[in-house]
């Protein structure tokens, strides 16, 4: 799914004029590939970091673990201030760093055995609900607007920081869609840390998955609220932007929610279920078996779209 979104981003930003997109200035193939590079930075570097954490102990070849650490360091450079600038989403040379980390992580996790997730009916129901809510963003990702009706899409509205009237749902990428995919990804690997050794690394992996889940929920709600609730004039209150970590109330809520999620069961009761997961493992490594081939479940003021 994530790979499909990267392709959509490249195609959409290559064929749609920059004026109809969000905070980009380049067009054609260069514009499409550049925006896809930025998408690899955010949000995909977050996903790559999570997958590296849950697969690290299954990397049995000696050269893979040092490479995984290098990949993780490259991925976390996405947190450097200004690495992804919502006000200018054109690609820059520095954007290669997190993208390189994502590429290495993809190579390592694709070729390594790890505990997958058995998607349950509850998981499929949740995925369906998220897909329905994300329909305007999915259409925008492909470069089209849904017909007017249930959702606000091409309706012109006033937006803070924007000149004149703009569509409620601009064409191109939205952080609401990326947040929905972060939710699905975090849930898809939710039970996996139980198969890891009882170490600090296991607890950090569980905490990071919980943080991504809480982050995804808050940012998806924030984007949906702004475009489908506030833009209709139903309320003057808007949810503050939460795409970038800051010392704000909304980020306090994310951290509290992540702490609460951290203590949720990491097994079947988590909603997706798991197979082949055991709490017993050796310090020299773990024998892990995939139960699925791969998880297929997708930024800094106002309604960000990085």
From TrEMBL:
Biased segments, Polar residues type: 296-306
Keywords annotated in UniProt: Membrane, Transmembrane, Transmembrane helix
Region (Disordered) residue spans: 276-306
Coiled coil: none
Membrane in keyword set: yes
Comp. bias (Low complexity): 276-295
TM region(s), chain numbering: 38-59, 66-84, 96-115, 122-140, 175-192, 204-222, 242-264
Name of the protein described by the UniProt record: Unannotated protein
């Amino acid at each position: 799914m994530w790979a499909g979104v990267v392709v959509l981003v490249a195609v959409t930003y290559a064929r749609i004029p920059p004026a109809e997109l969000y905070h980009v200035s380049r067009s054609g193939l260069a514009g499409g590939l550049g925006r896809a590079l930025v998408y690899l930075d955010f949000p995909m570097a977050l996903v790559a970091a999570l997958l590296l954490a849950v697969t690290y102990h299954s990397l049995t070849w000696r050269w893979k673990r040092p490479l995984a650490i290098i990949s993780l360091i490259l991925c976390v450079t996405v947190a450097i201030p200004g690495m992804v600038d919502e006000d200018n989403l054109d690609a820059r040379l520095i954007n290669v760093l997190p993208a390189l980390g994502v590429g290495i992580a993809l190579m390592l996790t694709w070729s390594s055995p790890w505990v997958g997730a058995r998607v349950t009916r509850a998981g499929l129901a949740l995925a369906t609900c998220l897909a329905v809510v994300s329909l305007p963003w999915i259409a925008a990702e492909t470069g089209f607007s849904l017909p007017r009706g249930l959702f606000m899409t091409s309706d012109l509205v006033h937006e803070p920081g924007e000149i004149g009237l703009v569509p409620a749902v601009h064409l191109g990428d939205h952080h609401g869609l990326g947040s929905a995919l972060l939710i699905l990804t975090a849930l898809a690997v939710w039970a996996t840390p139980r198969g890891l050794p009882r170490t600090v690394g296991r607890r950090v992996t569980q905490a990071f998955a919980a943080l991504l889940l809480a982050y995804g929920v808050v940012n998806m709600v924030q984007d949906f609220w702004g475009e489908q609730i506030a833009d209709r004039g139903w309320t003057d209150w808007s949810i503050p932007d939460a795409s970038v970590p800051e010392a704000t109330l909304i980020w306090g809520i994310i951290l509290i929610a992540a702490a609460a999620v951290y203590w949720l069961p990491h097994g079947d009761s988590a909603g997706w279920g798991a197979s082949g997961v055991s709490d017993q493992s050796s310090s020299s490594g773990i024998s892990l078996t995939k139960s699925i081939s791969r998880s297929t479940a997708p930024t800094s003021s106002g309604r960000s779209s990085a």
